[in-house]
Write a structure and sequence with these properties.
Length: about 220
């Protein structure tokens, strides 16, 4: 269907490098998608849904209905990516002006696919899964998974993706930005905060400059 693999992206001990830094992409490192590496346990296969960005590329999710393009401060409710309707992801511009975007999505223990992810991750259903879209790199504009828990080692490593830093784990199983956590971009004025996560929605705030309380929902 014309999709590229689900890869991951590393920046040493940083979650995200400078605007000019293309990072190091790991083939199949997006382990929460069927387009990443597959694990076979006898007849059992670990194979999560397509990423939100891939669903947008396929036309299964469209701007304004399936996902929102965000360039201003706000607080948003995001439905699980497995759902068939509602806002299921956010495409947030990093600082600006530039063509760098962060895709925020939410996974839940639902359906025949995403429920298999519990076998390899203790936090995949508890926070925001974030991919980075950039025009540079070997596969331009292909969103790649970022690790927002770089200091959390995994009990099972796939042995594929290592960033060589003292904080980085050897895989991308536990990578979500968890409730109560804020990520502030060290190279721009953009930030993302996860306020809460429950069975049917993720509440996430994002913006530029000073972090806001974010009580108004969009």
């Amino acid at each position: 269907m014309g999709l590229r693999h689900a890869n991951s992206l590393e920046f040493g001990n940083l979650i995200l490098g400078s605007l000019a830094d293309a990072g190091t992409s790991c083939e199949y490192g997006g382990v929460h998608s069927i387009m990443g590496i597959l694990y076979h346990f006898g007849s059992f296969v670990l194979n999560g849904h397509y990423t939100a960005a891939h669903k947008a590329q396929l036309g299964w999710s469209t701007s304004g209905s399936g996902f929102l393009r965000i360039e201003t401060d706000g607080t948003y409710l995001v439905r699980p990516v497995v759902d068939q309707a509602g806002i299921r992801s956010l495409r947030f511009r990093r600082g600006g002006p530039n063509n760098l975007w962060l895709w925020i999505e939410y996974r839940q223990f639902e359906g025949d696919y995403d429920i298999t992810l519990a076998a390899r991750s203790g936090s995949i259903f508890n926070g925001a899964l974030v991919h980075y879209e950039q025009p540079a790199g070997p596969e331009p504009n292909e969103p790649r998974l970022l690790d927002f828990q770089p200091g959390v080692p995994s009990t099972e490593s796939d042995g594929r993706c290592t960033n060589g830093g003292s904080l980085g784990s050897a895989d991308f199983h536990d990578v979500t930005l968890l409730p109560g956590s804020t990520w502030s971009d060290p190279y721009t004025d953009s930030w993302i905060r996860v306020d809460s996560a429950d069975d049917d929605k993720l509440r996430v705030a994002m913006g530029y400059g000073a972090e806001t309380c974010g009580y108004s929902l969009s």
